[in-house]
């Protein structure tokens, strides 16, 4: 079948579907050459020879490479070699960009196009965060499928998305597609922390990743309360950003038989109690307000819709706080929605003590402070928190880079927050919107803010639109497991998400 006749069939199939007669899963198989079935999903662990066009098999292969780390970068070369073999099999040029860290590389595959438009960059970081292995019921690096779910560290963030990008693009290539632009597939390293991530790549090798527009992780496809029906498809155009702070408590070091109420550890405990009750005011910058406006129309839960409309229509800070709390309480994705609305504090680490007969002189907690663009000023937040902790006899310190002052760090955060959002008047935004409505009939689409920061910054700084996309439908529990335990993704959601990406790229075929 030639690409043209395939596309004709695809479009005829869509017209026949009446824009909604086929459910998402049925739609996903329309016009698909490779069979959509559970057979591949059950592939034994040794069968790691897929051609890359089946997103589930590909994701399993990706998950079986342990690319984890705790902030110093991972080992990504074997992962990149596995990807390279699949691209090379169809004649697509590939490249490893070594970093100064051994066996940690950026990987690029470039599908050449006509050059009528500047390249499209699809980025998906290859590294993942580490795990609390004892709290996993499955091997985090086993790529196991159990029932409807694919388990593994990175299944959601973001090897699942990487496999959707790659499988969709490879399918086009295998069909003989010609695109109106180069499409670059980038598996970047050090995105979960580390010195040689996207910023290093752009600073040192921009010629290899220059693009007119890019897509990375971000915008969620949220499920209705049933956990599977698509509700709201979002493409993120802006990221939150954060900084790390430490709460440091001091006391007298002494023998454990001389206890003192004012020990460092008990002081730290009291201070953390105060901080854990801190709720920053609800902020509703235009992007977030518009997002909630569309969410109110998208949800099938009338109570939730009413709460959102009250929030959007709130006239003062007190009302915003009250209705914001109501929205978070009623949301089936409460943590995402809380983070979109306000500055947040996350307790991510704690250390104190080194021997059981010593009362230590210091106790430290690590707190990540997340900021919303067009929300609170970071310097004001830090000053407020210091005031709040005033009576606790602890210090709040910002974790700065070597030689960096607190004020310089705060200015860096302000700059990141002030980065303009990616504009939505591009062909790539429109092709996402059209494909999302085709693949997920009845879904609402909206540009959004992402609740974390991503690799997008270095490109956005150059004025290049970067959109964030997790193309699969997720329920609240799936989102919670991201960077948590038993991270997993629905197999059928990954297949349908890949179909979304495939149809987006279909628009670029000539
Ligand atoms: Zn990620």
Which ligands, by name, code or SMILES, are bound?
Answer: zinc ion
Gyration radius, to the nearest Å? 24 Å
Distance between the termini: 16 Å
User: What is the total tally of β strands?
Assistant: 19
- CATH level-four homologous superfamily name of the largest domain: Zn peptidases
Largest sheet: 8 strands, mixed
CATH architectural label of the largest domain: 3-Layer(aba) Sandwich
CATH class label of the largest domain: Alpha Beta
What is the count of DSSP helices, taking H or I runs of 4+ residues?
Answer: 17
Low-confidence blocks of residues: 1-48
Number of domain units: 2
What does this entry look like structurally?
The chain is α/β, with parallel strands linked by helices and 510 residues long. It folds into 2 domains: 3-239 and 420-506, Aminopeptidase; 241-418, Alpha-Beta Plaits (2-Layer Sandwich). It is built from 17 helices and 19 strands. The chain has helices at residues 3-16, 24-29, 55-63, 77-88, 159-174, 198-209, 264-276, 286-298, 302-313, 317-330, 334-341, 378-388, 406-418, 427-439, 457-460, 476-480, 491-506; strands spanning 68-69, 94-98, 105-111, 120-123, 128-129, 145-146, 149-151, 183-187, 213-223, 230-239, 241-250, 254-255, 344-352, 358-359, 362-371, 394-398, 444-450, 466-474, 488-490. The strands form 5 sheets. Strands 2, 3, 4, 8, 9, 10, 17 and 18 form an 8-stranded mixed beta sheet that branches. Strands 13-15-11-16 form a 4-stranded antiparallel beta sheet. Strands 6-7-19 form a 3-stranded antiparallel beta sheet. A hairpin with a 2-residue loop joins strand 6 and strand 7 (149-151). Helix 8 (286-298) runs antiparallel to helix 9 (302-313). It is globular. Residues 1-48 have low confidence and may be disordered. Residues 125, 157-158, 191, 217 line the site of zinc ion.
């Amino acid at each position: 079948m030639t690409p043209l006749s395939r596309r004709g069939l695809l479009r005829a199939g869509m017209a026949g579907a009446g824009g909604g007669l086929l459910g998402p899963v049925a739609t996903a198989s329309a016009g698909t050459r490779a069979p959509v079935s559970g057979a591949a999903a059950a592939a034994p662990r040794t069968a790691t020879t897929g051609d890359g066009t089946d997103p589930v098999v590909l994701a399993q292969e990706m998950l079986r490479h342990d690319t984890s780390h705790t902030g110093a970068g991972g080992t990504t070369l074997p992962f990149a070699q596995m990807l390279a073999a699949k691209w090379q099999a169809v004649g697509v040029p590939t490249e490893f960009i070594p970093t100064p860290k051994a066996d940690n590389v950026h990987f690029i595959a470039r599908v050449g196009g006509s050059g009528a438009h500047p390249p499209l960059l699809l980025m998906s970081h290859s590294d993942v965060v580490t795990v609390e292995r004892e709290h996993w019921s499955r091997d985090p690096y086993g790529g196991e499928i159990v029932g409807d779910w694919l388990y593994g560290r990175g299944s959601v963030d973001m090897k699942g998305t990487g496999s959707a990008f790659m499988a969709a693009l490879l399918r086009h290539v295998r069909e003989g597609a010609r695109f109106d632009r180069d499409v670059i597939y980038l598996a970047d390293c050090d995105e979960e922390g580390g010195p040689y991530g996207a910023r290093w790549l752009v600073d040192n090798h921009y010629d290899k990743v220059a693009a007119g527009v890019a897509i990375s992780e971000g915008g969620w496809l949220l499920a209705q309360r049933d956990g599977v029906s698509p509700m709201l498809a979002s493409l993120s155009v802006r990221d939150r950003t954060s900084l790390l702070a430490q709460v440091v408590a001091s006391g007298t070091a002494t023998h454990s038989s001389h206890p003192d109420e004012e020990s460092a550890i008990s002081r730290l405990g009291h201070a953390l109690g105060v901080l854990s009750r801190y709720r920053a005011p609800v902020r509703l910058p235009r992007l977030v307000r518009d997002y909630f406006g569309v969410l109110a129309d998208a949800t099938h839960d009338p109570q939730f819709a009413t709460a959102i409309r009250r929030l959007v229509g709130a006239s003062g800070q007190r009302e915003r706080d009250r209705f914001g709390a109501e929205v978070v309480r009623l949301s089936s994705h409460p943590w995402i929605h809380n983070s979109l609305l306000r500055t947040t504090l996350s307790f991510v680490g704690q250390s104190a003590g080194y021997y059981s007969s010593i009362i230590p002189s210091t106790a430290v907690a690590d707190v990540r402070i997340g900021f919303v663009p067009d929300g609170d000023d970071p310097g004001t937040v830090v000053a407020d928190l210091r005031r709040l902790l005033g009576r606790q006899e602890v210090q709040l310190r910002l974790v700065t880079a070597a030689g960096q002052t607190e004020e310089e760090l705060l200015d860096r955060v302000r700059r990141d927050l002030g980065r303009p959002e990616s504009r939505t008047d591009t062909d790539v935004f429109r092709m996402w919107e059209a494909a999302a409505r085709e693949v997920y009939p009845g879904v609402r689409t909206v540009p959004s803010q992402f609740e974390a920061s991503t690799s997008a910054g270095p490109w956005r700084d150059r004025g290049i639109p970067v959109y964030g996309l997790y193309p699969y439908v997720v329920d609240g529990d799936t989102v919670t497991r991201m960077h948590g335990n038993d991270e997993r993704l629905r197999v059928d959601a990954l297949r349908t998400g890949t179909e979304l990406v495939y149809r987006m790229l279909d628009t670029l075929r000539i």
